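Pasting as-is:
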Amino acid sequence: MGLQIIGCNYAYGFYSLELFCSIQKQLHRKEIHLYGKAPQVWIDAEGFLHLQNVIDTVHRYGLHIHSFEAAEYGYHFGYTNADMRNCSKRYFQNVVDFCAGASISNLYLYIKPNGFHEADMEKPLLFETFLWISEYAREKGIEICYKCTDRSILFMQELEKLLRQNQFNFSYGLDTLQQPESLSNIISQLGTPDTVFLHGTAQAIEGYLFELTSRCYAGSVVAYKTYMEPCSFEDPDYLNHILQSEVSVQRMAACAKEGSHEL
């Protein structure tokens, strides 16, 4: 049996949550990673909608929400403008409340390659907000995890130190924007990721699956953005293209397991 692939709604664009869950069931998947974007999930600074519909739809197809990822929609973590920072906090508070209502225990926040070091942000405010989110999530029984690429390792090391100094756990997920060869470097500096998000070309994804299998990786593997070729939502054949990519990932995962003894 190969690596267990967790489905993700990211690539399904404006298709319904119902359709996404139906396809995951056809692929014999048991768990999903839910990316919090409209229209499948609606959360903003004012609140959230359709929580019960999300719960009912996922359960109807026999699926379990393994983890949730906040879609920023312009909300960032370290704005110097107090009004914008408060709006950001309200958004992430609503994300945590949504996860608590849906009994989701793992919440991922994406750390951009530059660590959010834009001109209108400051690192002390940024870290202050991370600590606030972590504390609020802990009160709700939710674990904050951080998703990154290998281009944000230094920032992640700073963040890990901050969190541990304040008695918070640190766990991260790796977005596979880089080639599989970068995996060793990331693990040597941050440790083994709890989750790997497959994102890239067929060749890169296949390389990561073989590399993970050869390492006897026991974490989660999310089929995040697995377009085997460039495509857009406007393409009339978009959905069929995504389905083919989903099947290819399943096949590659099985092949990686079969060939792991040769690596």
